[in-house]
From TrEMBL:
This is Putative PAS/PAC sensor-containing diguanylate cyclase/phosphodiesterase. Residues 31-284 form the EAL domain. It comes from the Bacteria.
Length: 292
């Protein structure tokens, strides 16, 4: 009868709420735990960088790398998707980001001293990092300290960051550009893609998100979007890097449609610093086809 039915609803409703709060509690606890562990990881040097080659079709060789952070946590290698979001939320992205920049620029100096010359070092930076006090001064200091030509450095900022078209972001990005450092829009096409910001922000490069390459041959929208990005970049004189190139057909499509820079497992996974030069050599021995 009706009373019993109502009672049932109330009961399950209450159970649901209880379940929900338990679940929330569990998630919060887990995040707190990761945050504590991340702080320890910084103190104990558990982070390290891997580098993935960026290939230039026009030159038929790898010309640079993107630095990607890793975390050695209890004998397991943790990937950024598992900890960067927590680090951002808990404010740890600022010290972690400083460590990443410093390590990448130190590594660049080691490579230069070895006579291994790269044209481009791409480093990911989070919005909180850019907004943190003294970011540009620290960047300038690191470049000087490691004697790195600022033109070799490119900071990758996700499209989502650029959505906040506030005065502060614009000013900071302009100061970064004034140092001679380039700026690229990472995961391009996945944010709100208000093309307005390309006009307002001083960006050099668009990195096409790899989700568009995944669907390249089974979704004509993805193909149309990639072509549109390439056309737009060309008319605005922006560089484009295609991310997540895994197959020869994707590679051929990009080359045939005016993309000049590519990154993906097809050319190489992210590797430790000492494996970068051998990987470059391997790519040079088996070069991507020259653009006719
Ligand atoms: P991202 O900057 O878009 O980097 C590209 C990601 O795609 C990397 O994942 C890379 O390993 C992966 N990838 C490259 N080629 C291929 C491919 O052919 N196929 C597939 N399936 N994946 C490919 P990773 O290293 O796990 O990094 C994930 C994200 O974490 C990065 O995406 C970046 O947004 C963030 N991240 C990484 N390092 C840092 C860092 O030092 N600071 C900050 N703030 N974020 C970072
Ligand atoms: Mg990136
Ligand atoms: Mg990306
Ligand atoms: Mg990405």
């Amino acid at each position: 009868n009706a009373d019993i039915a109502l009672y049932q609803v109330k009961k399950t409703g209450r159970n649901n709420i209880q379940f929900f709060s338990q679940e929330m509690n569990r998630i919060v606890q887990k995040r707190l735990k990761i945050a504590t562990e991340l702080q320890d990881a910084l103190d104990q040097n558990q982070f390290f960088l891997h580098y993935q080659p960026i290939v230039d079709y026009a030159q038929s060789r790898a010309i640079g790398v993107e630095a990607l952070v890793r975390w050695k946590h209890r004998n397991k290698t943790r990937h950024p998707d598992e900890f960067i979001p927590v680090a951002e939320e808990m404010g740890l992205i600022v010290p972690l980001g400083r460590w990443v920049l410093q390590s990448a620029l130190q590594q660049m100096r080691i490579w230069i001293d070895q006579g291994f010359l790269l044209n481009r070092l791409a480093v990911n930076v989070a919005v909180k990092q850019i907004h943190s006090a003294g970011f540009v001064d620290f960047l300038e200091y690191l470049l000087k300290e490691n004697r790195i030509d600022p033109a070799l450095l490119e900071l990758e900022i996700t499209e989502r960051t650029l959505m906040f078209q506030d005065h502060h972001t614009l000013e900071t990005l302009s100061r970064i550009r004034d140092l001679g450092v380039s700026i690229s829009v990472d995961d391009f096409g996945t944010g709100y893609s208000s093309l307005n910001y390309i006009r307002n922000f001083p960006v050099n490069t668009l990195k096409i998100d790899r989700s568009f390459l995944t669907g390249l041959f089974n979704n004509h929208y993805d193909q149309a979007i990639v072509l549109a990005i390439l056309a737009m970049a060309k008319s605005l004189s922006l560089d484009v890097v295609a991310e997540g190139v895994e197959q020869e057909e994707q590679d051929r499509f990009l080359r045939n449609n005016g993309c000049y820079l590519a990154q993906g497992y097809y050319y190489g996974h992210p590797v430790s610093p000492e494996k970068v030069q051998p990987l470059f050599d391997r790519i040079a021995q088996n070069p991507p086809h020259k653009i006719p």
